[in-house]
Specification:
Two copies of one chain form a homodimer. By secondary structure, chain A is an alpha+beta fold. The first copy, chain A, has a single domain, classed as NADH Oxidase, CATH 3.40.109. In chain A, helix 2 packs antiparallel against helix 5. Chain A is globular, with a radius of gyration of 19 Å. The N and C termini of chain A lie far apart (45 Å). At the A-B interface, helix 1, helix 2, strand 1, helix 3 and helix 5 of A face helix 1, helix 2, strand 1, helix 3 and helix 5 of B. Strand 5 of chain A pairs parallel with strand 1 of chain B, so a sheet runs across the interface.
C-alpha cells in the first residue's frame, strides 16, 4: 500500500509564484530579442518542461526540431513573409495600417527556433478514440509548459503561426504524416511588456472573466 | 519611455517551484476525488489562470460552463459510457482486459465539472489567417493553465475526452458554432500519484527526451 498522505502539497506562496509566472508570460517578437545564445542547460530545462505535459493516453506524441542555422531560418522566414502578405490584405483601413506596423515574429532575431510537431500513432490511443484532435491538444499543452518554463528562466518565447505548415515540414525534412503545431522563437529579451501588446495598442479589448462563465447551462 | 530594466525577473528558486508544479500535475480520475466542495474563491483562481493564457491575436476565444447539477452530469456521463464502450472494442486481448479495469473519468465523483469551449470569431483574427486551428490551440493553453493552477492549489483535475462533443453541447444548450475543447473534472483528492497511472501500469513507456529532439533538420 502506498502511504497516501505523502503527496506533494504546495503552499500559498508557491501558488503565488506560479500565478506570477502565468501573469508575466508574454508572446515575444523580434523587436525584443537579444542575439545572446541560450545555454544548452537552459534549453534542456525548457524541453524537459514540455515533456512533463499531460498527453492523451500517455501517448507523448511530440517531436522537436531545434533550428539555429541562419540559412534554414531564412527559408522559414520567406514562408512567413508570403503568408503575412496574404494576411495583411484581410485587415482593412486603420486596422491594415496598424497590422503593417506590427512585428509579428522573431525568426531571424532570436537565437533559437523550435518547431514542434505532432506525431500520429499507428494504433488506437486511449482517450483519443472519439476526439481525434486530442493528440494535437497534448502537443499544445507541451508548448504552454515550454512557455512558462522559459519565462521562469527569464527567457522570452514567441509563437509564429503565420507560416505554411507544408513548407515548414519540407524545409526541415519532416515526414509527411507529422503535423506542425507551433513554431517557436526563443531568446533573452531586453524587456517583457507588462501586458499583451495587442491590448496596449487597442487591437482587442480584454474580456472580463465573469462574461465568459456560464453556470449549469449556457446562457445562465 | 518605459523603464526597460523594471521587468519581473524570476529567481532560480521560483523556477524550481514552477518545475515542481509541472512535475506533480496529474490527470485525476473518479477513484481519487473527494466530494468536498471547492470554495468559490479557488474556482475563481483557476478560471483566472485560464484567461492569463496566450491567445492568438489576443482573441481570448474561450468560454466556460461550470456544472455541478447531478442530473446534468448524469447525462454527460451517459455520453461517456456510450463512447467508452465503442472505445474499449478497439483494444484487444490483454490490453482490452486492462482497458476495462481503468477508471477514465470522474464526472460524477468530482464536485465540479468545467466544459471549455472555443468560440470562433466572425472577423479575421490576427495570427489565425493561415493556421485556422490556432484559436482552438489558444483554448488548450488556457486548459493547461487551469491544470497547473489547480495543482498548485492542491486541487486535482482530469480531462475527459471520451465524450461526443455534439451531445455535450446539446446537454449544456451551447450554441452550434462553439466547439468543445475539453471537459474537465475538478476536486480535492486523497492522493496525487507520483507518476502517470498509464506509465505505472505499463500501458505506455516513457519516451526519452533526447529521442524526441532533432537538430537543424529532422533525423539529425
Amino acid at each position: 500500500m502506498e502511504k497516501k498522505s505523502e503527496y506533494r502539497r504546495f503552499s500559498e506562496e508557491e501558488y503565488e509564484t506560479l500565478s506570477q509566472v502565468l501573469q508575466h508570460r508574454r508572446d515575444v517578437r523580434g523587436n525584443r530579442f537579444s542575439k545572446e545564445k541560450i545555454p544548452e542547460e537552459q534549453v534542456q530545462k525548457i524541453l524537459q518542461a514540455a515533456i512533463w505535459a499531460p498527453s492523451v493516453g500517455f501517448s507523448q506524441p511530440w517531436e522537436f526540431v531545434l533550428v539555429t542555422d541562419s540559412v534554414v531560418r531564412r527559408e522559414i522566414h520567406d514562408s512567413f513573409e508570403e503568408e503575412n502578405e496574404k494576411a495583411a490584405a484581410l485587415f482593412h483601413e486603420e486596422r491594415n495600417d496598424l497590422y503593417q506596423q506590427l512585428k509579428l515574429e522573431g525568426i531571424l532575431e532570436s537565437p533559437l527556433n523550435v518547431a514542434v510537431f505532432y506525431r500520429p500513432s499507428e494504433k488506437p490511443v486511449l482517450g483519443q478514440t472519439t476526439m481525434e484532435e486530442m493528440g494535437k491538444y497534448s502537443v499544445v499543452c507541451a508548448i504552454q509548459n515550454m512557455w512558462l518554463a522559459a519565462r521562469a528562466l527569464n527567457i522570452g518565447m514567441g509563437w509564429v503561426s503565420i507560416l505554411d505548415p507544408k513548407k515548414v515540414k519540407s524545409i526541415l525534412d519532416v515526414p509527411q504524416d507529422r503535423e506542425l503545431i507551433g513554431y517557436m522563437c526563443l531568446g533573452y529579451v531586453d524587456y517583457f511588456l507588462p501586458e499583451p501588446e495587442l491590448l496596449r495598442l487597442n487591437w482587442e479589448k480584454r474580456k472580463q472573466l465573469e462574461s465568459l462563465i456560464h453556470r449549469e447551462k449556457y446562457g445562465c
